[in-house]
Amino acid sequence: MAAGRHGAGTGTGTTGAPAGAGAGAAPPGTRAGGARGGLRVEAAGLTKRFGTVRAVTDVSFSVEPGQVTGFLGPNGAGKTTTLRMVLGLVRPTAGTVTVDGRPYARLDRPLSRVGAALDGAGAHPGRSGRDHLRWLAAAGGLPVRRCDEVLELTGLADAGGRKVGGFSLGMQQRLALAAAMLGDPDLLVLDEPANGLDPAGIAWLRGFLRTLAGEGRTVLVSSHVLSEVEQTVDRVVVLAAGHVAYDGVLGGLAGPTGVLVDSPDRPALAAALAAEGLGCTGDHSGALLVRPPEGSPVPVDPVRVGAAAARAGVALSHLAPTSQRLEEAFLRLVQRTEQASAAARRQQPPGPAPARPTTPAQPTTPQQPTTEEVR
Ligand SMILES: Nc1ncnc2c1ncn2[C@@H]1O[C@H](COP(=O)(O)OP(=O)(O)OP(=O)(O)O)[C@@H](O)[C@H]1O
């Protein structure tokens, strides 16, 4: 796969002149001259259809510099399609997406500003990792010494001379990251970079991405597994069935707190809570979990739960506020969004993509059709 015009082609990182190229380059993993501003990404009303397939519908979000933003969603949610639209590799059916205020294709020196890893390393199996990077560097006009820097940065320094065909999945992911870092970019767009990494590799990736964000870069990283990114991200955009289901800090995903309550006489406690209109379910240990009503932002008041038990003369053995487990909240959110989307589709005959309700002033850049689109 070639380093394309946009430098963010399938499976390649970006190429281009790195920041600090020339004398006094920063050691691997650090920046010459300290932190540099990241690039803001803004998507407005992004919609993509492939024939009759609605991959992404009216997706709006922003990605801020100095943060790791998680792009979460189950298989087929539209993550890759959206990331490809960010990078100008797929033309939106409707809507716009800008990087630093303009479409990717209109960025000045895009190869040194944006790095991407979308489909793994994509390197020829007969080439060494180092040769693969050298080839990308040559295509992007980068100094060859940058190849060794990014090999070091991604923990591949010792394996750089080995053929990529013998690389483990985790090593291939690292090579893709190395390629993405070739241009020392301000924005990193990574599609499922944790795929194939073992727990130690995931921990390493976490530190790697946090360091990049700490340097002021913008990091957008997709995953379909919340736990993979839970400790890494500052905020998340959750996609489900091509729609944004949530956009905010991870903590907010769990919603308001409930109350975990227990009694030696659980049936009596359950009856007392029901009599007060406090719906509850059993948790894993069998205790009763009083949840806020679906969609309510108001936490359950533990005093109200205790009072309900007291009025019924039920002794309590436990009473404590509790948050919904994030993974559970994520799955429920995805499920609800998918169901709502399926219901909306059943009511709508297929037709041309709807016009966006609000059209930003940003003009759509004419782009070359991608192989994906002409297939
Ligand atoms: N080139 C294409 N032609 C037709 N349909 C496509 C194309 N690319 C994506 N799709 C469809 O668009 C939807 C979203 O796919 P996409 O790959 O963006 O999801 P994803 O969230 O990245 O999934 P995964 O986690 O499995 O990679 C899916 O239904 C997929 O089949």
Automatic annotation (TrEMBL):
Pfam families: ABC_tran. One of its GO terms (molecular function) is ATP binding. SUPFAM superfamilies: P-loop containing nucleoside triphosphate hydrolases. Residues 41-266 form the ABC transporter domain. Residues 1-23 have a biased composition (Gly residues). Residues 1-36, 337-375 are annotated as: Disordered. Residues 337-348, 358-375 have a biased composition (Low complexity). The keyword Chloroplast does not apply. Keywords: ATP-binding, Nucleotide-binding, Transport. SMART domains: AAA. Belongs to the ABC transporter superfamily. This is ABC transporter ATP-binding protein. It comes from Aquipuribacter hungaricus.
